[in-house]
Amino acid sequence: MSSRPPYRVSHLDALEAESLFIMREVVAEFERPVLLFSGGKDSIVMLRLAEKAFAPGRVPFPVMHVDTGHNFPEVLAYRDRRVNDLNVQLIVASVQEAIDSGLVRESGDGMRNRIQTPVLLDAVEKYRFDSLFGGARRDEEKARAKERVFSFRDDFGQWDPRNQRPELWGLYNARIAPGESIRVFPLSNWTELDVWHYIAREQIDLPDIYYAHDREVVDRGGMLYAVNEFLPLKPGETPFVERVRYRTVGDASCTAAVRSDADTIDKVIDEVAATRITERGATRGDDKVSEAAMEDRKREGYF
Amino acid sequence: MTAVLETPQQRQMDLLRFATAGSVDDGKSTLIGRLLYDSKAIFTDQLEAVEATSRSRGDEYTNLALLTDGLRAEREQGITIDVAYRYFATPRRKFIIADTPGHIQYTRNMVTGASTADLALILVDARKGLVEQSRRHAFLCSLLRVPHLVLCVNKMDLVGYDQAVFDRIADEFTSFAAKLEAPDLTVIPISALHGDNLVSRSEKMPWYEGPSLLHHLEHVHIASDRNLVDVRFPVQYVIRPQSTTVADYRGYAGQIASGIMKPGDEVMVLPSGFTTKITYIETADGELAEAYPPMSVTIRLADEIDIARGDLICRPNNAPAVAQDIEAMICWMDETRPLTVGGKYAIKHTTRSARAVVRGLQYRLDVNTLHRDESATALTLNEIGRVKLRTTVPLLADEYRRNRTTGGFIIIDETSNRTVGAGMIIEAA
After folding, report:
1. A164 Cβ under 8 Å from any chain B Cβ
2. Quick one: DSSP state of residue A16?
3. Which of A243, B45, B204, B326 is most buried, judging by how many CB atoms fall within 10 Å of its CB?
4. Given A55, A57, A175, which is nearest B412 (Cβ)?
5. CB-closest option in B14, B115, B239 to A57
6. Residues of B with Cβ-Cβ distance to A54 under 8 angstroms
7. Closest CA of chain B from A21, distance in Å
8. What are B343-391's pLDDT values in tens digits?
9. Alpha helices (H) along chain A
10. Full set of structural domains in chain B with CATH
11. Is A288 touching B (CB cutoff 8 A)?
């Protein structure tokens, strides 16, 4: 510390300061914010930032999990523990219930990523949320690189990339008409490596599946999927045990693991710094569909 | 070179935000692609996707523009629509690039990208020299008070790495920039395609004695760009926990716009004018001995005064104007309706919202010639002019040239709720 020039601010401090500012801005300007929590590391970091933004007060908004029903048990346990520690309200928007009630239909491939969108929008309408915190980062994907921090959604929850509000300085336009909403991305300017450095610095506890462990997997097109009840073996597939970890954690039926020996935070950081494949490219079956897969999903109202 | 390829392990890197501007053919995408690739911010799967798309379109070389053009319409039309944000890091610094398209809606996008930039990078083609657009970009950077300007004279390979060509362009630009009060100007001869003077000094231009582009980006001194003199703390949110464990707690949360704050400092709260003392400056991690921009902190005060979001904490002997009559340069950003005299709008300035009426349009500025058209009666999309506003409540405002946070505001259409303009305060009374 003493060797640093005075009044210097590290990049992590600057990113944190910006994120806290964004979160406070939302709570000050909107009536019904909610934080979307998937159990993924980005939403875990976001929840930590929310905790810090309003300390010593409580996090002044509920947390919502759009639950595909395809969960890693470690992640659900983690979610319940965090929500309990912070004493915040948890809302679960269940994709399974939506399938049962006929709101959405299961797709042929069994992936539930795309059908989360109507479930999310349904919950937004039901609880009348006007602002939704999401953990997306601009470095993740090309469409996201062009999305605003305060991303306007019409009353169908849709994103229109050609009709975005210019965003200058730290001045975020929070004005909306009834039924419209804003998706807010406090981690917009963070990279995957920033997130990991922050997890290390803040000593944030993560679900174990982010660290290397032995797991029974199958290889599908170069991606390693855990064998579980949501992902039954296909004919001719032979599962095998690999040392793996998860770089992203989402729906258990479309999130793949990567081969890894990184069983500590420092090893994970070394690995992330050295990797040559994006996290979505390495682990998400849902983004492989087309170059514009993410843009198309966002237009429909996806996270 | 080795420095770039090391992993950015240092957690004490600082952050530099820069905006890039250039036209379609000046090699901006190639330049950014190279910076990203050489610093390992482009991944194999991204490059493979771009190579595949380039091949299928019949491009002769891998079109790195496809890395940044993320939207379907952009790829289909081969144009860049919007500001794209890109990230890379070296062991010294993390960089955020606001990559702004040069051709369509250039002003709106450029102004947006430049508003938060520490540095702006302008490219020209060595064969063509300065064009109208280069001057326009330089002007917009100076209007937005971007503290550092870098002119990259690109495609030096196509002029035989000739020093005379470079000198001519550098001289012309330097004399133009002098008129714009561009605070710090650096001119670098490069070839983005061949990597000359990008990461390391090129052997092909021994006559050039300055830094490579990346070296300059890594070392340019930005800490002193911050205003550490004028204490300005716009109150963003009042933290008052409804809890018995921290009963009577009342903290004012916000991000420090400028100045250095310490516990014990006497402060004034605007617009009320009450004075009190800072008792604590805190974050969730504990108390701080001092705080400075851009930290987000919570301030506690000795006296219980009525303070709300939109108020501002400063020093009694150094306060911003408390003003309802504002003169500002306005950049208009809306394609549907122009700014007109008599028009009423919502404005957002720091954490304060107000309504404003346009009292007068003194002139419209031609961003190419800098000619002032005093007969103008409206500002349409991408036009810039000097405007007089009267606000419903006082703004706690500084000149934009002195303070980019307390001097900037956005204009919002009250019907459509769209952000339709950006303002930079010249005078507040």
Report:
1. yes
2. H
3. B326
4. A175
5. B239
6. 239, 253
7. 6
8. 999 999 999 999 999 999 999 999 888 899 999 999 999 999 999 999 9
9. 11-29, 41-53, 73-86, 95-101, 116-127, 192-202, 265-274, 279-283, 293-300
10. 2-225 (3.40.50.300), 233-314 (2.40.30.10), 321-428 (2.40.30.10)
11. no
Q: How far is B262 from chain A (nearest CA, A)?
A: 13
Structural domains for chain A: 11-193+292-300 (3.40.50.620), 207-287 (no CATH)
Strand partners of residue B297: B254
Per-residue pLDDT tens digits for B155-197: 999 999 999 999 999 999 999 888 887 779 999 999 998 889 9
At residue B71, the 3 state secondary structure works out as: coil
Best A148, A169, A267 residue to mutate vs chain B (most B CBs within 10 Å): A169
Single-letter amino acid code for the residue at B353: S
Task: Residue B236: list chain A partners with CB under 8 A.
Answer: 21, 24-25, 28
Whether this model's pTM surpasses 0.95: no
Q: What distance in Å separates residue B156's CA from the closest CA in chain A?
A: 30
Any B CB within 8 A of A178 CB: no
Q: Give the span between the Cα atoms of B97 and A271, in whole angstroms.
A: 24
Q: What is the structure's pLDDT at B63?
A: 67
**What is the structure's pLDDT at A290?**
54
Q: ipTM value, please give it.
A: 0.92
Question: Residue B130: in which H helix or E strand, if any?
Answer: none
B 346-365 → A contacts, CB under 8 A: 346, 348-349, 351
Cα separation, B391 vs B358, in Å, equals 9
Q: Tell me how far apart the alpha carbons of residues B385 and B374 are, in angstroms, rounded to a whole number.
A: 10
- Residues of chain A contacting B285 with CB distance shorter than 8 Å: 52
Rounded to a whole number of angstroms, the distance from the CA of B129 to the nearest CA of chain A is: 30
Q: How far is CA A276 from CA A23, A157, B42, B96, B108, in A?
A: 32, 34, 8, 20, 35
Tokens representing residue B329 in the block: 């340069």
Angle of the A41-53 helix axis to the A73-86 helix axis, nearest 10: 0
d(CA B152, CA B112): 21
How many CA atoms are closer than 13 Å to the CA of B129, on its beta-carbon side?
A: 11
Residue of B nearest to A273 (CA): B7
- Those residues with Cβ within 8 angstroms of residue B98's Cβ, 6 or more apart along the chain or in another chain: B17, B18, B19, B20, B83, B84, B85, B112, B113, B114, B116, B117
Average pLDDT score, chain B: 89
